[in-house]
Each structure stands twice: as structure tokens, then as C-alpha cells.
Amino acid sequence: MKRATLVQFGLFGILAITGLASMAIIGCDSAGDAAKNGSANGASKGPITLVNVSYDPTRELWRDINAEFTPHYEKENGQKVTIEQSHGGSASQARLIIDGLKADVATLSIWTDTDSLRKEGLLKEGWENALPNKSLPYTSTVVFVVRKGNPKGIHDWADLVKDGVEIITPNPKTSGNGRLSLLAAWGSVVLNGGSEADATEFLKKLYGNVKILDTGARGATLTFATKGQGDVHLAMESEAYREIEDAKGELEMITPAQSILHEPQVAVVDQVVDQRGTRAAAEAYLKFVYTPAAQEIIAKHHYRPTDPSVAAKTADQFAKIKLFRVSDLDRVPDWEAAQAKFFADGAIFDSIYLKK
To answer: Which of 56, 123, 187, 193 allows an S-S link to 216, with CB 3.0 to 4.6 Å?
Structure first.
């Protein structure tokens, strides 16, 4: 991958556990990687580096999981491992991997982003079945963040289209948060007796109130919470908690009655780990995310754990929201259909937003 491409996407924050990741490490060739990381069968016990390419709001989550995993792996295997992180809009991150970013694991936001790697030969067929629970270690959903006292009286999806409400949400073309927010808004109409024509009209009004479309979820957080733009931020639940905690009483969370279930599956990038000789460590890393220790970290960062015991123990910290899947939407059987219907060039989002 050319250095210019990495510089272009520098805002996505390629981070190591202890600081900024090296461009040279991420961009090194297969032969150099294999020499550095040892053979693919894990025979070498020299230090290795893994690259985790993830979506925008998971920086703090993976930082803490990495800090728990690395000493565990060294103790169990006698091998030191360093994990570097890359974050940005989910679709943009998938594009970076396809364009040559050497990701050992992809922990992206949306199924279609991860599956796009399979279509390019980077993942094996049936990648979803390689890890427990269909490769889903946690879930989340979309909620609202508002200013202190909720001055615009925003309580549910219908309130977003009121006159004078300014919305901050990421761009659905680049951000998983953006796509989930749009689909949650669509579902609030069609799953409650409205037609697709009604839902399209609702989206026109909603995006008519959108003040700024950032490329990723963290950028939208900064626009709303730090720069003070907008009246309501359509945020992932985990990001909303972090945003409110940092604001020290100046922001509040509003949970709608109904929202979409976020299912961010994870995957070992088969072509990369086999080239770099990192398969054993990469697989151990993602399997570790399902352990009780990692699931506790997931809950601490306000992602919904999928381990039943940890989920039961932490259930009280999550709002009771009626959650629906993409497949619950009429005429949208799966994420691939949703991508084509709503987010492809010339699809529903383009038809309502580009004509504003």
C-alpha cells in the first residue's frame, strides 16, 4: 500500500497499545512479515505484531482488551505479541484492507463491510462460522444524545423531524453508525404500520434536519460534544455513554422505544495471516474476546456482551429497548439486500440526500 494512501486516512488513527503505530510495519511485504513473525504454523516464538482494523468508536474497547490479552498470550505461549489498532468509518476501513492495509483481524461494524473482504479473496467462504455465536462477540444499538435538559423535547424517532431540530449523524456511505441510524429510522416507520412511501418521506425530513454528515462515528461525536453543533446526536449506545461521561453533566441520553440491533462480527483475515505467519496468534486473539474476562471489559465499555452469564450480570446497565434486525424489515432479507436498497449509488439514501 502506498504511503500516500495511509497519510490520506491518517485521521483514522492507526494506534499501537503504547502509541502511534509504525507505517512501515503496517505496509511491509509478505516475505518481511513472515520473517518477522515466524512461520504460519507458529513454530517461531519470537515477538509478533498483529494489526486490528476496526470501526470508529471501538478505540478504547480494543485498547483495554489488548492490555488483557497480550500478557495472557505470552504466559500461555511464551511469545510476546503487540497489537496495533486502526480506526475509522467501517466502509472506509474495509476499503483500506482491500487496498493493501495488512490487517490480521477485521473487527468492522457491518456484515457487508467484512464480507467485502471475502469477495476480494481475503477471507475464506463461511467466515462467519469460524468463531462462536456466528463470529459475534457483542452487540449494540442506536440511541440519541441531547443537550442538558433536552431543550428540544426529543423522546423518540418522530421527534427528529420537528422543525428546528438539528441532527448530527455520520454519513451512511462511509460509516456503520450512519447506516444503522438510517435503518433504525426506517424501521420506526415500517415496523409500526407505515408504508415504504411513508418511510421515504420520513427520511427526507430527517436528513433535511441533518446539520453535518461526518465520515465516521467518532467524528460525529466530536462535532456534537466538543464543537457544540446540533441538538441531537444519533450515536451507538457505547459511544453515547462515553460521550456523556466526558461531557460531565452537559449531555443526556434518550433511548427510543425501538431501535436496530447492531451485530458487529469479527474475522481473522485469512490471506494476511497466512502470508505473515500470524494465524495462531490472530485466532487466539479473537477467541479471547469471548472469555469472561474480555466480556466483562465489553460490558464496562457499554457494549452488550453475548456471553449469557456476563450478559445476565450486567443486564441492568442497558436500557430495555425493543430491538429489530435488518431481516425484520419487509423486502430486506439480509444486509446485502439492505446495502443495495439503501446505500448503493443511486439507492434510497442518495435519492433523498443528494436532492436536498
So the answer is: 56
